[in-house]
Structures are given as structure tokens and as C-alpha cells.
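This protein record is not my work; I was only asked to verify it. The record follows directly below this note.
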Amino acid sequence: MATIVVLTHPYDGFHQAGYLVQGLFPFWIEDGHVVVVHEGVEGAPPADLVVLHVDRTVVPDDYLELSASYPRSVNGKSASVAKRSFSQQLLGPDDRYDGPVIIKTDANFGGLPELRHYHLDRRRGRGPTTPPRFARHYPVLPSLQEVPEEVRHDSRMVVERFVPERDAEGNYYLRCWVFFGDRERCTRYRARVPVIKARDTLDHAPCEVPNAIRAWRERLDLDYGKLDFVIHEGEPILLDANRTPTAPAAVSAVVERGMAQLAPGLDALLG
């Protein structure tokens, strides 16, 4: 049996955040493993495997270095999942494009984790003086010309071609692939709105993962996480990559059914 250390950042509020990985713990413990959640890089205990679980788009170097010191690591090589690291729909400030566009933060989850870290650092008198960009919503605009000039030149934001997956009735779809080691599940969600959140879901069904999306997992060095994608005009397009997914209450039943399916993925990572 193995000891697993889940390495988190003190600012993440790990035990209150409802992270998906927490749903795997009971299965690992039932199998005889020891699970230890550790905050910060100081005093990290020895273990057979570390799960690097820092809720930041770009993982700080000291966490990557600590993760590399363990015999085995989960996501230990995944330094960044910023949208600029994988988006194939990016539009630059001088590009010309006539179709609809969507404005996002380069950082995950609207930049909220970065904003939280920024404010907590400032309370302690450290960190950058310029706050990160935060966006509660990702607006879809009819054309690139309607994007404000300051947004087009802001490196903290990205402007992308809007490439939805739709059906004949006008519904929108989002496909979410969750994986841990060699175990996975992929679900297609249907909604009536173009930017789909869990609360917007009308229904859902299992779906396949295209090879092009699997290739992105390899490029991003992800052992565990969630990739959101669509099939637009027959082409698989990656929209978002997340190393620290949460379990939204609106689809919690779907998540719970998948925990038993994902948990054995630990065996492959332990070797």
C-alpha cells in the first residue's frame, strides 16, 4: 500500500472548495492507501506519490521542484494551462476576422484563483502591485471590431474565434473529458446558451474522446484533470484545460457516479 501526498497551496481553501479529487480519497483509503493533504512547500512529508494540486493557471516553480523530488508525481510536469499555451482560435490585436468572437481571461476560471492569491498576498505586503484580470462572464460578440481596443492589447485577456458545437434546433453542446491516470469518462452536455455552465445543462450523455484531444493531454503533461472541447464542423477543438477541477452541485450525480470509475487510475500512476 502507498502513501499519497496531495500538495496544495495555503490560499486554495482545499477542504472547503469541493475539488473533484476529494471524491477519490475514500476509494484510495478503502484500498489501504494513506492520503495526506499538505499545504505549502515547507515540511512536506515523504510519500510514494505526490498529487500536485495547486489551483493556479501557472504553478509556482517551488511547487514544481518539490513535486519532482518525490518518486512519482501526478501533474508534476504540467507548469501551465494558460489558454495561450493551447488555443488554436486566438486572434491578435492586428488580425482581421469577420465572424463572432469570444473574450476570455488567459487564466483559468475567469482569473478568479489568481485574483484570490493576489489579494491574500497583498494583505501580507507581498506579491505584484498590479492585480490580475478577472472576468465573471465570457462575452460573445458579433465581430472582432466590437472588442474594446484595451482588451485586444491586454496580455491577460484572450480573444478567440467563437466556434460552437450546435444542432439543428439551435442547442449548444460542451464535451468534458475527466481523467486520472488510465481511467476516464467523457460527457456531452446540452444547453440553450452559447457559454455553458453546469446550471445551464438540459441533459447529458456519454461521448467519445477524439485522438486530437488526447494529443493535447500529452502536450500539456496532464496525468489528471479535465479538458473541455467541442466538435465544430467535424473538427475537435480544445476550449479549456483544468488541473484542479471542482464538482459543480448541478451535475454532482454525474460526478459521483464517475468517482469509482476514476479512482483505480491511481494504480497505473503508482507503477
Observations:
- Residues 112-123 form the longest helix (12 residues).
- The chain has eight helices and 13 strands.
